[in-house]
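Q: Got a minute? One more chain.
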Amino acid sequence: MNIEKLQASVPEIKTFDFVNRELVEVMVKPYTFVRDGMLFISAEEGDGAADYYEDFINPTLENWAKKKNGYLEWMNPACLVFIKN
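A: Always. Here it is, folded:
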């Protein structure tokens, strides 16, 4: 598995941001990083990717992981890691 290609394929997710003092839906690419040959997705960027304490992983990311023959698992409360099946 080419980890850089996998990282580039992480989809944008829907979230909210203020634009001209109005809260609007926007699409953002979650913050990702590679360490020790593994792909991580941050849950600390406030982009709606995941929330450990609410036990939430964005459904778009979960579906992406399934399509890539894997799943997302909590590494710690700060980030998810992609695990290949």
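A: The radius of gyration is 13 Å.
Q: Perfect, thanks.
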